[in-house]
């Protein structure tokens, strides 16, 4: 029979052994943990890189809600829904849709069952900001219903700038929630500090909603500076945002009466514009105003 | 009919004395209330995502209750030997099958009433609207669809040895119909023969339970009412399937040894 | 069987006693021939309107109370509500389960479940009671109570048909017995006739089924 003393000595030996083993393993574990993904975000930890896939799904879900459930599946012809309308209608993204009003992505009923089943699903193309299924314009602020999905999409993929810009657009333009739109854009900027698109939207918020020209100018000028810090390949692909920033700066300066500065910005915009002819008219108009004023112009250094 | 209602009454008693329904109901309520408490840009009128989540949970819970309750009816009677004293009464096997079906189906109906009342209250708390007729259409066809599921599970309980295998198979079949049922013809068209004919045969043979399932979109997005004649037609269509499964169950049960 | 008698059905394990009862109750179809209860073919559900059955292993719906169980079976028999209430009170008093009538059956002991079984077998005031090993698993007091109930039913003019391994019990209670072995009816008649020259019914039973007793030195 084992005596109590032997039992306690064995227990003590076991405890010492376990502590020693743990102490020996601790440096290895610390090294292993530092090699792991650094994120302390719950979703990133749970889902890994598939968060982007979910984020995209929820963005499309927002579009589905924008259409009150009338939406193609993978079995339907989705050529007119490749770019979600909820983003396309903001003007913030380049559309890849066929264009024109979609008649029916489902096509003609394939058989009597399909024809019968269509009475039980959404079967008209509507947009929430135009009343949705009820076709009642008084309900046009029902576009709020897309917000949960946009919020979730942004949460899962904070690197996707489009989600923030689209959300801010609908908050500001349709729901007149300027403070919330600003919060969204600032959150986007926290996750994407040098995003020109987000700075542009933030500037529009300050300019159009808060009527704060000073802050708008600061933010847009920052956006222009960040654009010039982009690598050459990215600059080539993304000239539209520079045009938007410089055009709006030009507009702002013109409204403020700083015509020489406005001229500089519009000329800079023309250099990156795909439709320089349109901007030329505005440049001519500013020049005409300057000539009218016939005041001493201090021509700032050209940006180029 | 008296015997059928007597057996049905016992099934309903069993349902409200077991914990399944209460667990699922409380779970649904909790999840919905938690989701409702999320602040989305300080807007207290956003409701559609809640409605969609709630309806999805209602469908899942009702299918769980329908299948698990029905799948264990006859096997439990056999296992617990309550079948012998029951069939020793002036009760036919057909009456027993119909009684079990009616009990499970009515129990599902009671479950749905509770769930849809909660859904209506949740939606009205934000919508401030009560489209009762729309809810009635959705709930009615949902209940009819559950009748088909109950009949299928009842037939399965006589064919498969264990309630667990019956439940699993029923869940798989129902889930496949709900997600892919509408598109089987499109899949068939893309296949070469003989797969095309095979898939078409399956497409026409299966009960299209996805019709009531996809009505959720109409409720979530405030679409107008469906024409009542279409609702009636769909109900008749699904009831025909339920009747066919029940007849098959009666025929199978007649030949089964009781002990 | 004759009306008003207590008929014992004896046989070793696997002789076919339960199978015979299953045929009478319509659970299994006969492989040949036909069986009748009160002149009605046993395959007709109406044949079971006037019988009560107590199975060997008594299990009932665990989530029901004794009162609910009896009410359920009474409904199947089509008893009116007033009569159902009266019968339930009488039967629960008879089987001494009044104190437990509102408790679910899952909380009952084996003896109590057996007594509930007896009560449900009597709910429709049957003319024929079929009991499959009614005293199996009961203590001596329980066995005595069952014997008393059988005797009372006999005095009321009911017919009782039961199978049992307790030959002493059969000797005490039964008017006639039948002995079955390997599906064949070996003997049927009054207890005294069956016992005959043998010292007891047990010895007669063993002799009839062809069991050779070993002689002890």
List the helices and strands and how they pair.
The complex is a heterotrimer of chains A (about 300), B (about 260) and C (about 220).
Chain A (H helix, E strand, L loop, with lengths): L3 H32 L6 H6 L2 H17 L18 H4 L23 H6 L29 H10 L4 H13 L4 H14 L4 H14 L3 H16 L3 H6 L1 H18 L2 H14 L3 H18 L11
Helix pairs in contact in A: 3-6, 6-7, 7-8, 7-9, 8-9, 9-10, 9-12, 10-12, 12-13, 13-14
Chain B lengths: L1 H16 L2 H17 L11 H24 L1 H7 L3 H5 L5 H35 L4 H28 L3 H18 L3 H6 L5 H11 L4 H11 L7 H28 L4
Helix pairs in contact in B: 1-6, 2-3, 2-6, 3-6, 3-7, 3-8, 3-11, 6-7, 6-12, 7-8, 7-11, 7-12, 8-11
Chain C lengths: L5 E5 L6 H8 L11 E2 L2 E2 L9 E4 L11 H12 L3 H14 L15 H13 L5 E5 L7 H16 L3 E5 L3 H7 L2 E6 L2 E7 H5 L5 H8 L9
Parallel strand pairs in C: 1-6, 1-7, 4-5, 5-6
Antiparallel strand pairs in C: 2-3, 7-8
Helix pairs in contact in C: 2-3, 3-4
Structural class based on helices, strands and sheet pairing of chain B:
mainly alpha
Task: Tell me which protein chains meet in the greatest interface and how many residues each side has.
Answer: A-B, 29 and 36 residues
Percent of residues in helices of chain A comes to 55-70%
Mean pLDDT of chain A: 84
Q: Write down the Rg of chain B.
A: 20 Å
Uncertain segments of chain B are none
Radius of gyration of chain A: 28 Å
What are the key terms here?
heterotrimer; B: 259 residues; mainly alpha; 80% helix; globular; C: 217 residues; alpha/beta; 6-stranded mixed sheet; two-stranded antiparallel ribbon; 8 strands
Verbal overview:
The complex is a heterotrimer of chains A (about 300), B (about 260) and C (about 220). Chain A is mainly α. Chain A contains 14 helices and no strands. In chain A, helix 8 (about 180-190) packs antiparallel against helix 9. Chain B has about 260 residues and is mainly α. Chain B has one domain (about 1-255). In chain B, helix 1 packs across helix 6 (about 95-125) and helix 3 runs antiparallel to helix 11. The mean pLDDT of chain B is about 95. In chain C, a hairpin with a 2-residue loop joins strand 2 (about 35) and strand 3. In chain C, helix 2 crosses helix 3 (about 80-95) and helix 3 (about 80-95) packs antiparallel against helix 4. The chains are: A mainly alpha (about 300), B mainly alpha (about 260), C alpha/beta (about 220). Chains in contact: A-B, B-C. Chains A and B meet through helix 5 and helix 6 of A and helix 9, helix 11 and helix 12 of B.
